[in-house]
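EI: anyone free to look at a 672-residue chain?
SC: sure, send it
EI:
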Amino acid sequence: MLLRVAGGIALAAWAVDADAREMTLMDTVTTEAVRMADLSPTGEFTAVIRSIPRTPYEDDDGSDYSELVLINSAGEETSYLSKTEKFGRVSFGPQGEYLYFTAKEDGDDYQELYRMPVKGGGVQSVFEFDGNIGSYDLSEDGTQLVFLSSGPKDSDKEKLSKKGFKAEVYEEDLTYTQVYHVVLGQEDAEAKAVTPDDQQVYSVAFHPNNEQLLVRTAPTPLIDDAYMSSQYQLIGLDGEVAATYESEGKLGRAEFSPDGRYLAMIRAADYNDPSAGSLFVYDTREQEHRNVLPNYKGSVKDFTWRTGEELVWLGHRGTESEVQALTLKFLESRILVEPGEAIVTSIDGEAGKSEFVLTAHRPSHPSEAFKYANGGLERLTDSNPWLSEIDMPRQETITYEARDGLELEGILVYPLGYEEGKSYPTVMVIHGGPESHYSNGWLDRYASPVKHAASKGYALFFPNYRGSTGRGVEFSKLGQNDYAGKEFDDIVDAKEHLVAMGIADESRVGITGGSYGGYASAWGATAQTEHFAASVMFVGISNNLSKFGTTDIPKEMHAVHARSYPWDKWQWYLERSPIFHAEKARTPILIMHGKEDTRVHPSQSMELYRYLKTHGNVPVRLVFYPGEGHGNRKVAAQLDYSMRFMRWMDTFLMEKSEEKPPFELPHAEQLK
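SC: here you go
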């Protein structure tokens, strides 16, 4: 067995601390996390947005709260906008004197643009518009504003709706987002549309010359076009297209170098690349572009410009992350943040500044703000000081070999108090996508309550099966045109490896996951039922024929997953569907789904439930979450999910029961 221990995890943390406590499901769903860290132009301040979940049973239903804090160079934290205030899209002004944000204040009909002085002062209105202001950017001198908006609401449509005329024309009755430009400081300043009203715009930013705009456009607002048919263009303030930057497939962020010569862009390597994970640089002087990290066996996630010739880039490689500085002249990279220090998820810097800020997580804490300075990382925030009380389970990356010899990775979490030579009930947690991967950091989610489950005696394994990102473009394509083939065999091979290690009890292995991971969970409960004793399927696929006809990403499915259409091989699509194997099922399965899911329609869960219920060979339950889509966003639905997940696994893995648990949960007992 090949085994490596991820950096940053002390052996002492693996032992059970007599003074520590177990992590509860309430802890899991109410953990706070930093979701943005932005360095001011002067480098003096860092703006941090912290996500604060609502309190189940106390707060009314809704999305997480947000808090904006400002951290100065001495590391002192000041609350700027509290969780009671609704705001969004925070950024520093060009000279760093103000923090700008969008909000709908009292008396506003729409989301408007506001600012506050960094060093103290009240909220100031910047610009009001007859429509919601979305993403925005300011010119270098702060006198010009560009922003995205879909304009005012259609009053006639609202009036007709009240009279009962609510017909929806599918994929034709669309609302487009345009770019608007306005010169600030003028009396009766008026914003004018820059882009046409039949073109969708997803982002806008000033070129360093302040006379042109970098925009990302797509033919329509449909998510499939956003994924597969968008492009970056340079346009004038009059809307005239000056340049179109050649690309294929999926796109990530793009930004000009400080002098405007280079445009760095995260994009797919080609049209069939499952993810935007390659770093391209366009030289506008030489009229050429190239992949500046052509042989990188990982996935580029973010970048920031340091100078006109150097950028800092963030990559995820395997189960770790790294941050490097790239000099364009010689295409030489040097490591700044080593793999194993933390799982970095975003970086932000300023031209001319050697330091930068980042968000990162570790097995011991969720996402926090850090600063890179003087050759090392300085942690800026501690959003959950109570985590010091929690008994942290042992967590490490292991490698194993698939049946065809391919080397694979995964993250193993041991049960608390693990005893070598003793086997434990084990849950395989399968990521979605499949163009995604697990990193060896904070893995606790409502759908995978790692530390709570470990405290109850479970081992958990997070496999990065073939088709995952983080190991280069070629590896991410290995699952294409092979739905439920070798990719899901990799999961069984991982299970058998854990059994051979002695940690997994072969008769007590469960499987769970969402989206494509839900597909794997349904496949594990049907076609591979002999391998799994329990399954929890979330927003998963059960019928690849009807999935194609009900999803909002058919173009993306064809280009980067199936590489064929259902009518090319009807029988193959059917046989790679869990419903085809429903009669075989002997694995108790709990099926859960957001009722408003457009990515994987709830009918996918209904089909599998009905097939299994009619066959009558196995316990099955279907739970819908009204108001939720492709994943539960609200904390009450998250807690409910966690409780149902743990009770299902407890029933069939711990207790080895043959009967499903009651369908009700004791929520009413917690109401005050």
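EI: The mean pLDDT is 95.
SC: 👍
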